Amino acid sequence: ISAEKQGYKHFMLKEIFEQPARIIDTLRGRVSVERGEVNLPELGLDEASVQAIDKLVFVACGTSYFAAQVGRYMIEQHARIPVEVELASEFRYRDPIVSNNTVVIGVSQSGETADTLAALREARALGARTLCICNVIESTIARESDGVLYTHAGPEIGVASTKAFTTQLAAMGMLAICLGQLRGALGEEQARELIEALRQVPAEMEVMLRDMAPYETIARQFSRSHSFLYLGRGNQFPIAAEGALKLKEISYIHAEGYAAGEMKHGPIALIDKQLPVVVLCPRNRVYEKTASNLEEVRARGGRIIAIGNQDDSRLEAFADVVIGLPEVPEFVQPLISVVAVQLIAYHIADFKGTDVDQPRNLAKSVTVE
Ligand code: G6P
């Protein structure tokens, strides 16, 4: 019964629209703006143990891997702890260097992904402390970890992950603030601002979800394209990668997510009048640089879909289509901009008529290595 589509054409669309509510569920009881505090007692962290951490290593697969990459930006910036992000399937083959002061964190919606489970078991055998960010209560990864931070996305039916990703980002945000406070890297006032930013995300997402017109335009204009390039810089780079993954998964169109600054070292050779380029460029510390990458694409005749602030007239001048984002602090920009790339993939797939919720060859949870 909980699995009903509630009037939406696909589970994926229902789950995209559910995101504001599930983020509220994930933040509930854990953050207090008044006290400027994030409380995550389930992780068993205290000042002494956090001061002693030499590094954090995230291990994850698929969409969860990109959530971990966003987490790295949040934690390094606000907690000043070194963070590595490793594909779970590669972790073991690198002879990973971990110590008793290393914390290895699995990120997994299902809590059953074989590669992530194997990486965590390896980490534990090497003496690391293991934690996880997980959506399914009492899943194997949750049971085997020393501490679990549950996301409250609820059951996710669509194979392409959406609300699991944004609730993972909310969890990453809370973790960054909590670690920053315990590490002594984050003052109370700063913590309060970051908490407030997280708390505002659901309302800003609702604004995003009001207007489907740009996505319908994109679907009509670009569904016949054979390939897409997604570009982003800073904390938008993982969102570019996630956007490309979503498009591949459900529309079967080839797509690459690239760091905007790396474009000149390869992908720029692909740009012609046929190639749609999705650029994530909300106003932030890397805005100017990303905007100039956009101008390079334009100069070579590429077709541009720009995802940036709604009042950004510079984008209007360069892009074929602009998706306007509400103005939010840089810390939470990935939670907002990802909704745009989810909807681009969804509308293109729906226009093409693919099986959005059950795309070919993919499984919701992969329990083989
Ligand atoms: C599969 C799913 C993806 C998911 C990945 C990792 O490939 O199709 O949507 O991101 O597994 O799953 P997990 O449950 O560990 O987050």
Brief sketch in words of this structure:
The protein is α/β, with parallel strands linked by helices and 369 residues long. The protein has 14 helices and twelve strands.
Describe the protein's topology:
Elements: H1 11-17, H2 19-27, E1 31-32, E2 37-38, H3 47-52, E3 55-60, H4 62-79, E4 83-87, H5 88-91, E5 102-108, H6 114-125, E6 129-134, H7 140-144, E7 147-150, H8 163-183, H9 188-208, H10 213-222, E8 227-232, H11 237-251, E9 254-259, E10 276-280, H12 287-299, E11 303-309, H13 313-318, E12 321-325, H14 333-352
Parallel strand pairs: 3-4, 3-5, 5-6, 6-7, 8-9, 8-10, 10-11, 11-12
Antiparallel strand pairs: 1-2
Helix pairs in contact: 2-8, 2-9, 4-8, 4-11, 8-9, 9-14, 10-14, 11-14
Bound molecules: 6-O-phosphono-alpha-D-glucopyranose.
